[in-house]
Amino acid sequence: MAIVVGYVATKEGRAALKRAAEECVLRGAKLVVISSHRGGKDFDADEARQFETELSRVQGLLEEKGLEHEVRQLVRGNDPAEDLISVAEEEKADFIVIGLRRRSPVGKLILGSNAQRILLDASCPVLAVKGD
Fold first, then answer.
1. Which Gene3D superfamilies has this protein been placed in (predicted)?
2. Neighbours of 121 (CB within 10 A)
């Protein structure tokens, strides 16, 4: 059993990570944390260091909880949705957990492009959570 979570250092990302960890405890599943960035010329050294520092912090938190886990930092030029779907298929994930931003009434008509793509294209169930 595996649960894949898309993680970014936002309140929505932290909510997704928290819920995914809770589900792993309930199900006795492995947690696979994916943090995806397109990379390229817009991804400078400072941003890369912050990215690594945040993922190290996440790794430490999961180790403290005693969860079986894997943290993957992906900078492959793909959309985050592509990376998440790909890893979920590779891991034969039971489901994917993603965080969603709160939206205005008009914004609720349209999900973010990554969230929409994950919901529509993932071959497994997707759990979407709101930030605290």
1. HUPs
2. 12
Give the 3-state secondary structure of residue 93: coil
| Inside any domain, residue 64 | yes
Separation between Cα atoms, residue 58 and residue 78, nearest integer Å: 22
The answer to whether residue 81 is domain-embedded is: no
Provide the pLDDT confidence category of residue 114 given band limits of 50, 70 and 90.
confident
Length of the chain: 132
Query: For residue 20, what are the domain limits?
Result: 12-72+92-113+122-130
The answer to whether the beta carbons of residues 107 and 18 sit under 8 Å apart is no
Domain assignment present for 109: yes
CATH assignment at residue 109: 3.40.50.620
Residue listed under structure tokens 């999900």: 111
3-state SS class at 95: strand
Residues 6 or more apart in contact with residue 120 via CB below 8 angstroms: none
3-state DSSP assignment of residue 129: strand
What is the structure's pLDDT at 94? 96
Is 16 among the domain residues? yes
Look at residue 130 and give its three-state secondary structure.
strand
- pTM here? 0.85
